[in-house]
């Protein structure tokens, strides 16, 4: 490969990085699905995942706020993520 070919590949790669209408729609649909899945979670799972992913709290901080052991926090976040993944699977297949 010579330098000109490399330059063309580089511009082709950056061209692929632009948002397409389909990519924007999928991103929006994924976001909507995640928020709907969170909304449907039991309160303890919803609180744990919200504090972690939306508020950016550590597991230790969540354990203090939720007044439970850190292992329980880990379990709740795992189960919440698992449920969210199940909702997203049809979109990503």
What is the share of helical residues? over 70%
First-to-last CA distance: 35 Å
Overall shape: it is elongated
- Count of DSSP strands: 0
Residue stretches low in confidence (pLDDT < 50, at least 5 long) are none
Instruction: Describe the main β-sheet briefly.
Output: none
- What's the mean pLDDT score? 85
Q: Structural class of the secondary structure composition?
A: mainly alpha
Radius of gyration: 20 Å
Number of helices: 5
N-to-C SSE series?
Answer: HHHHH
Q: Give the strand content.
A: under 5%
List the helices and strands and how they pair.
Blueprint: H1 3-16, H2 21-40, H3 43-54, H4 59-66, H5 70-92
Helix pairs in contact: 2-5, 3-5, 4-5
Primary descriptors:
83% helix, single chain, 93 residues, mainly alpha
Describe what you observe in this structure.
By secondary structure, the protein is mainly alpha-helical. Helices cover 83% and strands 0% of the residues. The chain has helices spanning 3-16, 21-40, 43-54, 59-66, 70-92. Helix 2 (21-40) crosses helix 5 (70-92), helix 3 crosses helix 5 and helix 4 packs across helix 5 (70-92). The relative contact order is 0.12.
């Amino acid at each position: 490969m010579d330098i000109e070919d490399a330059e063309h590949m580089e511009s082709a790669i950056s061209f692929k990085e632009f948002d397409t209408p389909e990519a924007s729609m999928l991103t929006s649909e994924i976001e909507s699905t995640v928020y709907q899945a969170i909304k449907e979670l039991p309160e303890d799972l919803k609180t744990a995942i919200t504090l972690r992913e939306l508020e950016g709290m550590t597991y230790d901080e969540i354990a203090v706020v939720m007044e439970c052991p850190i292992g329980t926090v880990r379990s709740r976040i795992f189960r919440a993520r698992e449920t969210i993944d199940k909702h997203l699977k049809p979109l990503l297949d």
